[in-house]
Automatic annotation (TrEMBL):
<dbReference type="InterPro" id="IPR001054">
    <property type="entry name" value="A/G_cyclase"/>
</dbReference>
<dbReference type="InterPro" id="IPR029787">
    <property type="entry name" value="Nucleotide_cyclase"/>
</dbReference>
<dbReference type="InterPro" id="IPR050697">
    <property type="entry name" value="Adenylyl/Guanylyl_Cyclase_3/4"/>
</dbReference>
<protein>
    <submittedName>
        <fullName>Adenylate cyclase</fullName>
    </submittedName>
</protein>
<feature type="domain" description="Guanylate cyclase">
    <location>
        <begin position="211"/>
        <end position="345"/>
    </location>
</feature>
<dbReference type="Pfam" id="PF00211">
    <property type="entry name" value="Guanylate_cyc"/>
</dbReference>
Length: 398
């Protein structure tokens, strides 16, 4: 084992592992450098808890000779599985302990059954080490070797020493990813990218052409009045699921949930001039959402609650950016086009329609529409033509 090479790896990590800008690249290079320094690694795993509404953690697995680092995720249910409860990672995460296991030792295999799988692959030693972040949360790294007799004491000591700078750079990478994830979760992907890129001052705005999607749940006020608040929240979550997946799959970004309302935008590339293509995808998302909401059945006691929603579609220029007061800002969109979409959504409700659109959207979309009439719109000098899908009949709400 070359002490100078170990020191060089430490310096490289402390300097930010600049030759490896991606997490998987950093891990691959770190492992390859450790092997070159005389540490007999066969398999290395790094397991990081995440701050994500659906994902408990991410894992990065390096294997000697593999073409790339394997990256995966696990959900929150893993904590309740027998496999996790009987694994060294459970002790690392829950108690911050370093755990070592010998695949050839019967007592170790009985305590940690997964060591039998490692023995069948030729492993001779396994160490799980805690990676403790500055906020005292514990993450983990596992190190496995095929060296006869396992790791030497000096090799384990060197690995322990390397976990310190490795923990710091892993924490930095994790914090940046967490910030990105939180922004994506709460303000949307495109808005999150702009905020991370430094667009954080009030008044930082851009003008862009986009399709605007404004929807709400029909009869929500009455629903809220007769059902417990917890049930209403659960219904809303299922209801929004019916739309968000389709919106994102067709190139849209959800900007805001407003009670039972949803505001989304589908940017149009002004240089490509793809308004027709974007509008067609938006209409497809609206049709999919309509089917999903129609199929939504929520049991309440012995009854089954069914739902309807309405969505207004309009295309126009919007002002997109930071608006607010003091140091409390909201990344949203405003403008006459948004106001028109909001008015169209109200008209959809009055007419018992699910999907309505402006004249501008219909011209760009080219699907089969029926004109529903001209309507005076507050704030607009002329009446606006409103259209409904030809394959949709109005429904009178009870």
């Amino acid at each position: 084992m070359d002490a100078s090479e170990i020191n060089a790896i430490t310096d490289w990590l402390i300097d930010g592992a600049r030759s490896a800008p991606m997490p998987s690249q950093m891990m691959a290079q770190a492992c390859e450098r450790m092997v070159a320094a005389g540490l007999p690694l066969w398999r290395v795993g790094v397991f990081i808890r995440t701050l994500h509404p659906e994902i408990f953690g991410r894992n990065f697995i390096w294997r000697q000779g593999a073409p790339e680092v394997e990256v995966g995720t696990v959900d929150f249910e893993i904590q309740e599985t027998p496999e996790f409860k009987r694994s060294p990672l459970s002790l690392v995460f829950n108690r911050g302990l370093e755990v070592r296991g010998n695949p050839d030792n019967l007592a170790d295999v009985e305590r940690f059954p997964f060591l039998l799988d490692l023995r069948q692959e030729g492993a001779t030693d396994y160490v799980a080490m805690p990676l403790r972040f500055l906020d005292d949360t514990v993450h983990a790294m596992t190190l496995t070797t095929k060296q006869p007799g396992g790791f030497s004491d000096a090799q384990v000591a060197a690995l322990r020493a390397l976990t310190k700078p490795l923990t710091r750079i892993t924490e930095i990478i994790t914090l940046r990813r967490t910030a990105t994830t939180l922004l994506d979760t709460y303000v949307g992907n495109r808005a999150g990218e702009r905020i991370m890129g430094g667009q954080i001052r009030r008044g930082h705005t851009d003008t862009m052409q986009a399709v605007i999607w404004l929807s709400d749940l029909r009869g929500f006020t009455a629903l809220s009045d007769r059902l417990p608040a917890e049930t209403v929240v659960e219904i809303l979550n299922h209801y929004f699921d019916c739309q968000v997946a389709s919106i994102r799959a067709h190139g849209g970004e959800v900007l805001k949930f407003m009670g039972d309302g949803l505001l989304a935008v589908f940017p149009i590339d002004e240089y490509i001039g793809d308004a027709n293509h974007v509008c067609a995808r938006v209409l497809e998302a609206a049709r999919e959402s309509r089917c999903s909401v129609d199929a939504l059945a929520f049991p309440i006691g012995e009854a089954i609650e069914r739902f309807r929603f309405g969505v207004a579609l309009h295309v126009g220029n919007i002002l997109y950016g930071n608006i607010g007061g003091g140091n409390r800002l909201d990344f949203t969109c405003i403008g006459p086009a948004v106001n028109l979409a909001a008015r169209l959504e109200k008209i959809a409700g009055r007419m018992g329609r699910t999907v309505v659109a402006s004249e501008g959207f219909v011209r760009a979309c080219g699907a089969d529409w029926n004109e529903l009439g001209e309507f005076p719109i507050a704030g607009f000098s002329t009446a606006q033509r409103v259209y409904g899908l030809a394959d949709e009949a109005p429904v009178v709400m009870a």
